[in-house]
Amino acid sequence: MDTLTAADLQQILDEIAHAMAAEVDRGAPATYIPELAHVDPSQFGIAMALPGGQVVAAGDAATPFSIQSISKVFMLAIALGRLGDTLWQRVGREPSGAAFNSIVQLEHDKGIPRNPFINAGALAVTDAILKGHQPREVLGELLRFLREAAGDDDIHINRAVAASEQATAHRNTALAEFMAAHGNLKNPTAMTIGTYVHQCAVEMTCEQLARAGRFLAGVPGSPRMVSSARVRRINALMLTCGHYDASGDFAYRVGLPGKSGVGGGILVVAPGRASICVWSPGLNAQGNSKLGAQAMERLARATGWSVFG
Ligand code: GLN
Q: Which of 73, 100, 118 to mutate for ligand 1's pocket (most ligand atoms within 8 Å of CB)?
């Protein structure tokens, strides 16, 4: 294991935050969810949860943001806990190479989404968790999971963001209806979409998300939320599918499993070392945080951390 101290890591984060503050080309916040379009793109935060409970952070790491698709990682953990491997009858485990909300791919795949992190796959996961439960119960379970994983009860859903996405959820509704046509959606479409937009509208800070991801990084002292065998599988999916059609590029540049969201957050796992969250609202063409990905590339270079040795 490397010899970087918390003070060394703090210095690295400070340097990254400083460099990112000077970046002019910051990408653009998501506009298809109207509430997210107003978020100030000048913000940047980064936080790292280390063994023993220590957290180091820089920039706007204490500002809550919309976790959006990062919620898919936690919902997958909950779904696997409930359904085990039967979940894989409804969703695949292959990288998509297509946009996160691709309709054409779902048609090609006959209603079985390519993986649990593209929108169609996440809708199938949410639909599977809903079986026999009300949306309120499922969202309560997600919040309990996040609060326990983060060790922080101050984690909530932003209802304005959920309502804003729900009012414009035409594409996700199309994906859900298409899956229903193939028998791969069991609940009323509105119920699954309603639950999904609320899970995506959870707000957390970089510090909270970094702590919530500790169980995936297996950092000593982290709460044990799922078995280590399952953690390895979730991490494999994050590495191969966590950034949609930019997953290969992120694996090449950063070399660590990560999951992005259109709120501009990225949760990154450095196994045994740290759980990291970076956030900047401006997105690149693939819908991933532009500065977030740049910052993670710098961090991987500065620390030498990689799952590839
Ligand atoms: N709620 C968003 C959507 O369904 C999540 C997408 C994302 O974060 N990439 O479009």
A: 100
Domain 69-200, CATH homologous superfamily name and number: DD-peptidase/beta-lactamase superfamily (3.40.710.10)
User: What are the beta bridge partners of residue 56?
Assistant: 48
Q: Is the dihedral of CA 66, 123, 248, 302 positive or negative?
A: positive
18-53 pLDDT, tens per residue? 999 999 999 999 999 999 999 999 999 999 999 999
Ligand 1 centroid distance, CA of 52 (Å): 33
Q: 6-65+204-303 sits in which CATH class?
A: alpha beta
* Surface-to-core class of residue 34, CB atoms within 10 Å of its CB (0-12 exposed, 13-18 middle, 19+ buried): middle
Phi-psi region of 253 (alpha: psi -120 to 50; beta: other; left: phi over 0): alpha
Give buried/exposed letters for 122-147 (b at 16+ CB in 10 A, else e). bbbbbbbbbeeeebeebbebbbebbb
CA 308-68-166 angle, to 5 degrees, is: 150
pTM, two decimals, is 0.97
CB 64 within 8 A of CB 204: yes
Cα separation values, 59 from 186, 197, 287, Å: 43, 28, 22
Domain boundaries defined on the chain: 6-65+204-303, 69-200
